[in-house]
Amino acid sequence: MPGTDQSVAAALTRNVRKSGLALSGNAYDRMRTAVERRGRELADALRADIGDGPWDVGLASLGRSSPHSDAARILGFGSLFAEHATGPLGLRAVDQARIASLGGLANFVVATFDQLVDGGQEPDEVLSTGALVRLLRGDRVLVAPSGPSIVADLTALYARRLAALAPERSTLDDVAALIERAYRLERLSLGPDPSWRVIRDKAAVPFVLLVAPAWRVASSRVEMIREQHLRWAFRTGDFFGWLDDAIDVDADVRAHRRNRVANLLARGYSAEAVAAAIDARGLAVRHEWRRLYGHTGGEVDDVLRASVTSWLAGGAA
After folding, report:
1. In this structure, are residues 302 and 38 in contact, taking their beta carbons and an 8 Å threshold?
2. Which residues lie closer than 8 Å to 215 by C-beta, 6 or more apart?
3. How confident is the model over 198-228, as pLDDT tens digits?
4. Could you tell me where the DSSP H helices lie in the chain?
5. Burial, 291: exposed, middle or buried (Cβ in 10 Å; 0-12, 13-18, 19+)?
6. Separation of alpha carbons 265 and 280, rounded Å
7. What is the mean pLDDT of residues 122-137?
8. 171 phi, psi to nearest 5 deg
9. Are 292 and 20 in contact (CB under 8 A)?
10. Residue, of 122 and 72, whose pLDDT is higher
11. Which of 115, 153, 202, 245 has a 20 to 30 Å separation from 185 between CA atoms?
């Protein structure tokens, strides 16, 4: 299917512009600036936490052409998404800031692990299952000097920050279970024939991880909407998974990776039909947010729409 990613992405670009799912003009420029500013702030803090050497070596191991700006974008999106998507929960300002920081860090760790594995590293070379469990438990894990230790360093940092958010052990246990699930899904997706459910959940669960820690410090008066909120985050991640598949369809086919868009095209659906279906998923996410929270959290809408624009332009969050 040579050239199919361009045709699907082009059709999707037309659809999201027409439906309003993409952010453009000054509004997009403002949001992009906000994402980059937040990302740089978090990157500076992470460098201070894990040290200049591990940070620089870790970024270099990713093989990106612009590692520092890419890191800022990934950190910034995760942070702003987590902050605004948990806004209606009524958190204290200090907790809101911690949730935003955790969101940026989680997004960066997931993206870094994903890129290293996609680049040919074995999952155990990046971070083994045993090392992940020990890090989340708070144990010290030694990483070989030749290995890409940034994933281990940042996972350990995440666990420490999460523990500081709410000292109750259940807080760490709940979120650790999500992290371990995301890790298992990544490994399963690399197998010879992963299920479509695995492909879906691999994209969706990390978005749940961005907001889940907030529920450990949220007021009990909003507990009734917890499951609705987490389901919305899951569906948001699923939508971005479809968006990613639309952009990467040719590369995934060449690499023999399962791709939901490629599956639909192979079954005879046109690029226009697939693009329209993906656009509809994104619109459903927007409408669900409005149904749950009314006019609150307009920043979430801007973050999502700006990310759609950036993703289709080649700058996936």
Report:
1. no
2. 89, 226, 229, 230
3. 999 999 999 999 999 998 888 765 655 888 9
4. 4-19, 25-50, 52-60, 67-85, 93-118, 123-126, 129-137, 150-165, 169-189, 196-211, 226-254, 260-266, 271-293, 298-312
5. exposed
6. 17
7. 86
8. -60, -50
9. no
10. 72
11. 153
